[in-house]
Amino acid sequence: MSTQLTPEILAELAKRATAVRKNIIEMVTAAKSGHPGGSLSAADILVTLYFAVMRVDPHAPADPERDRFVLSKGHAAPVLYATLAERGFFSHSELCTLRQIDSRLQGHPDMKSVPGVDMSTGSLGQGLSAANGMALAGRVDGKDWRVYALLGDGELEEGQIWEAAMLAAHYKLDNLTAFVDYNGLQIDGPVSEVMSPLPIPEKWRAFGWHVLEIDGHDYNAIYDAIETAKTVKGKPTMIVAKTVKGKGVCSMEGIADWHGKAPSSEECVKFLAELCG
């Protein structure tokens, strides 16, 4: 199937994604720590989910009928926080408290304190298992809500991911759609050199998943893949999204050093200018 977004919606998503990226840069700079590269690469996926796909209500974040989202690569918390704030779950002004003492915006998402966070994540490899549990519970309860999860490509080096992959296929969790943010880089360099998970699409197909490969910065492609996943029966869907680390800021794009390094105040000004330009 091919599902296209209207020009108006595309413009709105682009506007929201720019705002999310701006907030990622500013909040990580203010915190003097964090993970900007993989947050920027995932911004278009989260914006599409939260503004064009998912059934969520900022005024009722615990609504039992909502769709669920699990950020399995929990170190990319800045993109989740910035998206939730943009969607209205809490004030933008709170973003500048990232990683500060007594802030609820910890370095990794905390479901007990942050509205809109469906699962606490941080130890890589565990998020997909949690998403499996949610999807299985929804099916047992006869609910029509869906579960979405975002994995990092470096995270695929964790063995628990593949245990979860087997379980999801075994139980035919077709209400589960996951993404791999395939930007090709992790903290120590290219994923292909650190501990290669390649070929990624073929592995997921071998584990019994329906697999789609897309440009992770193309809103139409992201939306179409999600809508296609809704039609797949008897299998979970993995969307392998090819992305660029640090997307949106030319000086950060494709550079592994920006995986877990905060910009200086001077760099922040430069990067925001690049983003707006």
Automatic annotation (TrEMBL):
Keywords: Metal-binding, Thiamine pyrophosphate, Transferase. Residues 17-267 form the Transketolase N-terminal domain. Signal peptide: none annotated. Its cofactor is thiamine diphosphate. InterPro entries: THDP-binding, Transketolase_CS, Transketolase_N. The keyword Metal-binding applies. The keyword Metal-binding applies. Belongs to the transketolase family. This is Transketolase.
